[in-house]
């Protein structure tokens, strides 16, 4: 299909204007709409960035490639290399029906729109915060003989320990670095740098994190708010990965997983009592 799409592109470029549709319909027996989709798929998946992943994507089948055409190239490369798109791995995409994939992608688009709306709604509040920080910085500078610091420097000085607390919140929510980063609109490496305090998150990232359930008051100050329970904390990365996997189990099989885990826990408790 991709090779045919490439040839359709050449055909369209070399035939007189207006004759392309007649040729594909009358001589090739293709609906013009299908021919255009084939050409678009070829442009997308035979691009320099995605061509090396051609074999991987071709195994998904034509209909799923059509659904993935509108996704970002970087996201598709990440998917082929073991990452996720719309929270789905390549194996999950392969097992899904076309209808399920379409619904998952549309749901992800809807979530992105809601996130963008949230960013817009919070913009005024962020501007007010910046003004407050600038005012506080001016007060500190006026009462000190040291070199004055600007607002950005003052913000940076208050972020000590943010990385560790951000990681703690991610683990509390049971999300891996990769999934958490994707849902906050950054790469996994960026998330790693945030947690190591080698970089500091920006406002857009923090808004997305709050939408996931992160206790921003705790992240920024070390004091928990009523939004999150300190008891709801997983212990390590391994436990977070197990919880993340469980959250991605389809509803009809989740009960089976619960019974299996419960039986294993009861068996261990019985051995301990013995």
UniProtKB/TrEMBL annotation:
SMART domains linked to this entry: HTH_XRE
One MF term in the entry's GO annotations: DNA binding
The entry's keywords: Coiled coil
Coiled coil: 98-139
GO biological process: regulation of transcription by RNA polymerase II
Domain of life: Eukaryota
UniProt domain HTH cro/C1-type: residue ranges: 166-219
Listed name of the protein: HTH cro/C1-type domain-containing protein
Organism: Bemisia tabaci (Sweetpotato whitefly)
């Amino acid at each position: 299909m991709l090779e045919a799409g490439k040839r359709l592109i050449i055909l369209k470029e070399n035939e007189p204007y207006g004759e392309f549709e007649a040729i594909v319909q009358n001589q090739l027996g293709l609906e013009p709409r299908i021919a255009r989709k084939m050409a678009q798929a070829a442009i997308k998946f035979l691009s320099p960035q995605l061509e090396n992943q051609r074999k991987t994507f071709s195994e998904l089948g034509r209909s799923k490639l059509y659904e993935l055409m509108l996704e970002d190239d970087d996201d598709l490369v990440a998917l082929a290399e073991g990452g996720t798109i719309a929270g789905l791995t390549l194996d999950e995409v392969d097992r899904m029906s076309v209808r399920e994939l379409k619904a998952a992608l549309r749901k992800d688009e809807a979530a992105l729109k809601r996130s963008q709306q949230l960013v817009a709604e919070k913009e005024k509040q962020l501007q007010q915060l910046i003004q407050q920080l600038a005012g506080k910085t001016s007060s500190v500078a006026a009462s000190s003989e040291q070199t004055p610091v600007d607002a950005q420097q003052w913000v940076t000085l208050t972020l000590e320990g943010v990385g560790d607390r951000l990681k703690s919140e991610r683990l509390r929510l049971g999300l891996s670095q990769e999934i958490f980063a994707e849902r906050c609109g950054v790469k996994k490496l960026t998330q790693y740098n945030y947690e190591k305090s080698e970089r500091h998150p920006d406002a857009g990232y923090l808004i997305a994190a709050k939408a996931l359930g992160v206790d921003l008051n705790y992240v920024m100050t070390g004091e928990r708010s009523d939004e999150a329970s300190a008891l709801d904390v997983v212990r390590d990365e391994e436990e977070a990965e197990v919880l993340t996997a469980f959250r991605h189990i389809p509803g009809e099989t989740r009960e089976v997983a619960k019974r299996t885990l419960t039986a294993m826990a009861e068996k261990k408790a019985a051995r301990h009592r013995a």
